[in-house]
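Weekly structure sync, notes
Attendees: PL (lead), two postdocs, one rotation student
Agenda item 3: pending single-chain targets
PL asked that the sequence for the first pending target be pasted directly into the notes so everyone works from the same version. It is reproduced below exactly as submitted, 483 residues in total.
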Amino acid sequence: MIEVGNYIGGAHAAGLGTLSLTSSAPDSGDPLATLVDSREADVDAAVGAARRALRGEWGRWTPMQRNALLTRVADLVDERYDELARLDSQEYGGPITRTRANRARVVGLLRYYAGLALQLEGHTVNVSTPGDHHVFTTRQPAGVVAAIVPWNGPIGSLIWKVAPALAAGCTVVAKPSEYSSLSALRVAEYVTEAGAPDGVFNVVTGAAETGRILVGHEGVDHIAFTGSSNAGKAIAATAGAQLKTYTLELGGKSANIVFADADLGAAARGSVAAAFQNSGQICSAGSRLFVHESIVDEFLERMNRQIAGMRVGFSLDETTDFGPLATAAQAATVDTLLEGAVAQGARIHRFDVRVDERLHREMGNFRLPVALVETTDDMAVNRREIFGPVVSVLPFSSEEEVIERSNAGDFGLAAGLWTSDVDRALRVSRALEAGTVWVNCWQNLDVAAPFGGVKDSGVGRESGVEHILSFTRTKTTWMAFRG
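Predicted structure, written out during the meeting:
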């Protein structure tokens, strides 16, 4: 087990206090690293370094210099991505095949925002005020950004925030999850190696209290957060009291709708991925599977054939499809929701998956993918985010009914539908209350396509031009001319 300090001002730094925490592998329980459980002094040092960089050399860098930096970081990440993927798999339990498969997206985000660094533009304004004026706007960095990153996709979530923030000219203090901090600390080294001035990108490790301290720090100008809706609301309250800006990518309870006229083979493959990829630990998981009442039995059988032969196993095993849940607490939450649903009359449908011979069904954080049938919309399992390999199969009879049921509830991150009727696809996608709607696909993401939620699923958008603009402020300049 190694001891790892924060990364502040271009170098690793020991904690200024005495608090520490241990990062452990969720599939074995073996300790991986001892991390700083940062408090006020640590956060203050990181924010101070970011503020000094903003007011110093970094603040004078041109867009072309920021473009070159992010391009160099992209090259380093691409070259060393296997190490980052391995660190993520070890810490949060994601199958190595999944964490490695994110290479193109992570590197693509860095290259995309490197390009957008050159395209931040203002405009001239034709005003009607008496006199002779030239009025124009410019985009300027928002300032010091607090980037708070979850454990279920560590390196991707980190770069998703850091790349546009740096491209806009901001400086960053990142707080990764206490369950998956090692890849963020490694990326901080890469940013320095690529030539960033000291303090441009800092990392403080720690648990929830560290995040609260960072969010409330008077030196932070903008908060970029991914996590639970309850935490997001607390951040919004703090930010509102301090008049800080924020973007929040929060939870979901996404509806995935299969109409009887769909390509059922494609829908079954997509629905398995929607519900169970990353062992269901995805905020946009399609955990409410609405299936037309005429095809429920057939569709469950198609899903079972799709899952048959898939394997539950250790995160670094190349043949693993489903790894462990990230924490014992998360596994217990899944168990509690399942038990509650069964007590209310639901039935568990078990799929034919293979299990690594070194495991058994109740070992540690491992949970097998299951479907719940005979549930009702008001059950907790259909209203709360599960973050585990559980999908509810909910029959419906009409288009109007499924739209109403899909929109019921507090979340609105994503939704999907499967149909061969183009008119229906357009009609239903318009009616669904979600920030993203996938038609005949699921979890498609692109660096240029905005992603984010409505209702309790968040505020603002990540990816695309909208994202980099959230890290900027508009300044209007008036110039008067005297004749």
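Discussion points:
- The chain has 15 helices and 25 strands.
- Residues 446 and 463 are 7 Å apart (CA to CA).
Action: rotation student to compare against the earlier draft before next sync.
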